[in-house]
Automatic annotation (TrEMBL):
Key word 4Fe-4S present: no
The protein's name: Cytochrome c oxidase subunit 9, mitochondrial
PANTHER family named in the record: CYTOCHROME C OXIDASE SUBUNIT 6C, CYTOCHROME C OXIDASE SUBUNIT 7A
Family, as annotated: Belongs to the fungal cytochrome c oxidase subunit 7a family.
Subcellular location: Mitochondrion inner membrane
Free-text function comment from the UniProt entry: Component of the cytochrome c oxidase, the last enzyme in the mitochondrial electron transport chain which drives oxidative phosphorylation.
Length: 64
């Protein structure tokens, strides 16, 4: 019975890992930026504008 030779898999794991990490970080950064600038910042501005308007109305009622 002859033993068959199997080629060592040396660089495939490293290349695959780098590619997977690059894709994951790219998608993560894109989705995070989309959430931050597409949802969080506009909602924060809307909240701040609401409380600013509320404070102006309260100050106007007090005669300031």
């Amino acid at each position: 019975m002859a033993a068959t030779q199997i080629k060592p898999i040396t660089g495939m794991l490293r290349r695959g890992l780098i590619l997977d990490l690059g894709i994951a970080l790219g998608i993560g950064f894109t989705m995070g930026s989309g959430f931050w600038y597409g949802y969080h910042v506009p909602r924060t501005q809307a909240r701040d504008n609401f409380y600013k308007k509320l404070e102006e109305e309260r100050a106007a009622k007090q005669g300031r």
